[in-house]
Amino acid sequence: MIIRTIRFRLMSTIVGSVLATWLATLAVAIYFSQQTLSTIVDRQLLQYMDLAENSMQLIFMDPEGESFFWERLSGDDSHLIRYVTDRAGRRGAPGLVTTNVWVDGYQIVSHQQGVSFPAPAGGFPRLVDHFFNYGSGWRVVYRFNDSLNIWLAVGMNVPAAANKDYASELFKPLIPLFVVLPVLLVMVWIGINRSLRPLRKLTRSVDALDVESLEPIKLDELPSELQSTVDSVNELLLRLRRALESEHRFTANAAHELQTPLASIKAEVQHHQRLVQSSDTGQMLSRIAKRVDRAADTVAQLLVLARVESNNIPSVSEPVSFDILLYDCVADLGTVALSKNLTVNVDQVAPVKVIGNRTWLQILLHNLVGNAFKFALSDSEIGVFLKVVNGCATLRIENSCASIPENLLPMLSERFVTVKGENQAGSGLGLSIVERITQLHGGRFSTEYLRSEQSFTVTLELPCE
Questions:
Q1: What is the DSSP letter of 377?
Q2: Among 127, 152, 174, which residue terminates a domain?
Q3: Exposed / middle / buried, residue 354 (Cβ in 10 Å: 0-12, 13-18, 19+)
Q4: Residue 185, number of CB atoms within 10 A of its CB
Q5: Domain total for the chain?
Q6: pLDDT by residue (tens digit) across 91-135?
Q7: CATH number of the CATH domain containing 335
Q8: 357: phi then psi, degrees, rounded to nearest 5
Q9: Which of 157, 174, 191 lies at the terminal end of a domain, its last residue?
Q10: Closest of 374, 398, 396 to residue 387, by C-alpha
């Protein structure tokens, strides 16, 4: 399926119309130019005819001149056509104009290479000049001289004359057309681009919209055709914003309401764990406690996610010692590392300051480091690396982990995506929170899994101070 843009459609329609109009105008101009050329040729033929007629009158009114004229004719008595020669007896050179004279039963042609025109028909009028077309491109005028009782015909080779003396007369009216066409096409291109400028502004405004900031589109001097579209889009944005706000409020309220009963269940389970003597009952209560912890962690993460996605974040502008925050986070989660006998290598953590909000960066690091400790294999090593690369603070955390299904790898940062069968509690929201906080700080976040080494790496890039 071929997708054609509005510019392409406008250009094809307008340029097609312009070219069709131009070709029609060119055809009309050529027609009238040819008519003008015919008029010029007829006028020139009449001038040649006047010269020929005057010459014949001078020749035949003088006996000596008439005798000299007959002497300069070539030909034999077996032919009725005679040709005019020069003083040396040579016949004249061919030319664009040929003169024929009918006198005393002979047809006299002005030169050997000249064309012998048909004898005047009996129906030719003797009182007026008679024009007609002869052969391939010859225009001929006939005239009868009553005083000499002779017919004269003067013909001109119109194509040869047009290619020489009259070419400028034919093409002069066409020059403006060839000049106007490119100018007109350029003006059409500029006009279409200017007309589409509001549409490009609207496209940029729509592209700048963020799912968490659905502000109405405000553009000045919009064409009326686009204004109705913008109004409809703004109404849709308003409905979407209300729906998102309602969803965020519901998530936050539901998570908040769940915290208290979960805390009560956890306290009740812990109380019964201290009282029971049966090992089976104790194991059952431990499993219940783990599930309650998982539910409580999910509720807490939901609250954080609701705040993050509602853009409820203070101004992100203060310089923060990212390395200090990282050390504090590792220390806070040290009990998790000890419980799994993990070795945490922080030797390659350089002092780095980033621009951001301290509270949200703490949450980001807590999720990253917590995930690494939680899902690392027991008795393994976790590598933490922090340095400045190309003006960005680059944090990389590597840990060994259990096998991750191939189909889950592209979705690890989506909500509620967890690896099935894992023994550790997880809500599936941690990486979603990390990714969102990174976006709000203008950074980049990525994950990598090496199946051959069972190694999982997260990389975080944030703008430095």
A1: P
A2: 174
A3: buried
A4: 16
A5: 2
A6: 444 568 888 998 877 888 887 777 888 888 777 777 788 888 888
A7: 3.30.565.10
A8: -100, 125
A9: 174
A10: 396
